[in-house]
Design brief:
α1 crosses α2. The protein has a single domain, classed as 2-Layer Sandwich (TATA-Binding Protein), CATH 3.30.310. By secondary structure, it is α+β, with helices and mostly antiparallel strands. A hairpin with a 2-residue loop joins β2 and β3. The protein has two helices and three strands; from the N terminus they run βαββα.
Length: 79
């Protein structure tokens, strides 16, 4: 999210994976796409993400994009 913009809505989610290495690989794959939109960190075998936006519609769009990228990354690392 751009500096100086106050968010009006926020969403936090935790995505658990079978292994910490899986979570790390997925986060490494998607974090460059998230710059400014999603703050994400590792917590053991999970990715903890926070999304902030100015409107609910914007938050839902960002959440949808983030989850789609995570889904693709997860499919790639499990093959």
């Amino acid at each position: 999210m751009a500096e100086g913009i106050d968010s009006k809505v926020e969403c936090s989610l935790t995505l658990s994976f079978p292994r910490a290495s899986d979570a790390s690989k997925v986060l490494g794959t998607v974090e460059s796409d998230n710059a400014g939109y999603v703050e994400a960190r590792l917590d053991g075998n999970a990715i903890v993400a926070t999304i902030k936006a100015e409107s609910l519609n914007s938050l839902l769009h960002t959440l949808d994009d983030f989850l789609a990228c995570v889904s693709v990354a997860e499919k790639i690392i499990t093959k």
